[in-house]
Structure prediction request, 202 residues.
Amino acid sequence: MATSFSVTWDYRCPFARNAHEHILTGLDAGADWNVRFLPFSLGQAHVEEGGVSVWDDPSQDSGILALQAGVVVRDEYPEAFPAVHRALFAVRHDAGLHLEDRTVVEKALTEHGVPAAAVFERIDSGAALAKVRDEHESYVASHTVWGVPTFIAGDEAVFVRLMDRSPVGSEPASSIRTIERVVDLLTGWPELNEFKHTVVRR
Prediction:
């Protein structure tokens, strides 16, 4: 039976990039996982009480354009999602470019065979933002999600920081082992609330 779990992302977070690279590497190698990729707006998570939400003013969130694009590709061009997902993380963390720049997002889409005009049509219509909001608010309400990457399985949710990456071409056994350890702890040992090294040895 496939292992089912969900995981949140915002392209601005380096730890989300690390976790999602491991997941994509594992899936590409045939890992028996059923994964739901969930958009999460870090901008909305940091809106102060009484402040204007990202949903009402998306311009205040520098990551929301790319997040919407990722959701459209996930839902409407799923075969291209793994490559586009990696590319949008790379835009921020490798190239140091701006995720709010439509030309940057357009390039990441077109380079992987996704019609950028169609994606931006979904964004400009408000449909993509509505989808992001619905999923973001759903898991905030059901699992008290507050950040990325959060892994979710059943009633359990856990925020995870993986320190290593898994770029294209990485050896998949390590990525599969890493993600399965996370999910095993999440589902099999919910009594463990926090396990954090006092020093990061890098």
